């Protein structure tokens, strides 16, 4: 019995260490994901991929400030950023030619995130990416609870007047999975650890920044450029 305990005690210590390590990792990721008030500039780990035909862009091509958001359609803080800050960004900066805004996928919260990203890109085939993007953020209802299951995503397409036959075929094929995974991987390599994450002329700012914080960042950038 004493000999058996010699093995049990070290094993228990190892197991406890594993549990603690997992808790620390989860806590760290959760803090990163929920850092919705942090407006600290973070150095990008690698250069962002160049803007390409696979990107969806709002605003003028030659706008002095480029904002690239990495988001997850299920992320509640992305939804908050969309409703509270991005709406102001569109009116004050994008429509006036000061900002070019680009949305990229960082689909890390589960299967429904990937399906939603696929659906938005399928809508993009019918020139309605941004309408679908907005519809998704306005219809969040928890993570991986069915809100962004394929049947609901198809209903969203009907609500937006999309050609359902083309949309359904696109969504069911999950044709954009590789591209979504690629964008998510590239975002991580550039320093994205949670969503939303915004690059303003290449500088990374984490979290769902309040309107005042985000507009100050843009105004400072415009001032620096003499705009």
Describe this structure in words.
- The chain is an alpha+beta fold.
- It has eight helices and six strands, in the order αβββαβαααααββα.
- A six-stranded mixed β-sheet has the order 1-6-5-3-4-2.
- Helix 2 (76-94) links the parallel strand 3 and strand 4.
- Helix 3 packs antiparallel against helix 4 (129-137), helix 3 (111-124) runs parallel beside helix 5 and helix 5 packs antiparallel against helix 6 (164-173).
Number of strands: 6
Shape: globular
Compute the CA-based radius of gyration: 21 Å
* Euclidean distance between termini CA atoms: 79 Å
CATH topology: Glutaredoxin
Sequence-ordered SSE layout with sheet pairings:
Layout: H1 2-33, E1 41-42, E2 56-58, E3 65-71, H2 76-94, E4 99-105, H3 111-124, H4 129-137, H5 150-159, H6 164-173, H7 177-189, E5 197-200, E6 203-206, H8 211-224
Parallel strand pairs: 3-4
Antiparallel strand pairs: 1-6, 2-4, 3-5, 5-6
Helix pairs in contact: 3-4, 3-5, 3-6, 5-6
């Amino acid at each position: 019995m004493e000999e058996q305990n010699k093995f049990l005690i070290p094993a228990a210590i190892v197991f406890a260490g594993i549990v603690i390590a997992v808790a620390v990792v989860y806590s760290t990721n959760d803090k990163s994901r929920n850092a919705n008030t942090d407006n600290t500039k973070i150095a990008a780990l690698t250069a962002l991929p160049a803007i390409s035909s696979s990107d969806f862009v709002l605003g003028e091509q030659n706008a002095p400030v480029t904002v690239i958001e990495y988001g997850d359609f299920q992320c509640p803080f992305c939804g908050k950023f969309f409703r509270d800050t991005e709406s102001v960004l569109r009116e004050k900066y994008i429509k006036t030619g000061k900002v070019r805004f680009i949305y990229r996928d960082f689909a890390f919260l589960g299967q429904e995130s990937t399906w939603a990203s696929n659906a938005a890109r399928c809508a993009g085939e019918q020139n309605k990416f941004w309408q679908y993007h907005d519809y998704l953020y306005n219809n969040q209802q928890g993570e991986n609870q069915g809100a962004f299951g394929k049947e609901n995503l198809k209903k969203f397409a009907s609500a937006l007047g999309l050609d359902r036959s083309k949309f359904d075929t696109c969504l069911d094929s999950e044709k954009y999975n590789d591209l979504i995974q690629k964008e998510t991987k590239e975002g991580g390599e550039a320093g994205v650890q949670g969503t939303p994450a915004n690059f303003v002329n290449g500088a990374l700012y984490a979290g769902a920044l309040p309107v005042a914080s985000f507009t100050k960042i843009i105004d400072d950038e415009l001032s620096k450029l003499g705009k």
